Amino acid sequence: MSLVELLAQADERGLTAAGLACLDRCVPLLGGGDEVLRPLWVSLVEDGAEWGERIDWLRESLGAGGPDDPPGGAPGSVDGADPATGEAAALARRMLAAVPAEWSADALREWAGICSAAALRIHRLLDSADGPADGPAGGPADGTGGNRTGDDRTGEDRTGEASPLVAAELRRQETVLVLLAGHGAAGVRQALDVSTEGRRVLRAVVSRRARARV
């Protein structure tokens, strides 16, 4: 089953996990610690309990605004490291700003689509070990194309296969949705493990790019 189909069939918990896992993997771009999203993961297990309050706390802790605020820098973010990393950080901030205050299927589905497209775009931007990535290879530059996830899946590289970094991100997105569809709340722990692995990979990529520019 494709990523688009998995998103279309997911319930509130699955959609929340999908968006949250994408955001969690991109925390290194926001200057946040590994545990900064833990309250939202707890809310996910508790059927959205205190979701809005925990989002407000998260945005305050990361210095991010809400959906109606213009994008800005987050304390400790990696803007300025190189153009690709700066654009990736801006996409991650937009993912955070777009988190819906309402724990509802419609709002969460839109957010999950935004996060999916943005996370794939981020990994595409950073998929150069020795320095800034080449120009964009399809997909919306602002990461707001929530319904264009399929375009990102088939358009990572219009001349061949998706790069290893992007392909791995796509697999993680699909795995999270499959886990939640098959196990419900019991799959959250495994989804978090998948996200943690991806976060470590992205953190290493960001560090490598920063070292390459020294």
UniProtKB/TrEMBL annotation:
Record region (Disordered): 60-84, 131-166
Highest rank taxon of the organism: Bacteria
Record field: compositional bias (Basic and acidic residues): 149-160
Residue ranges with Gly residues bias: 136-148
Protein name: Uncharacterized protein
Upper taxonomic lineage: Bacteria, Bacillati, Actinomycetota, Actinomycetes, Kitasatosporales
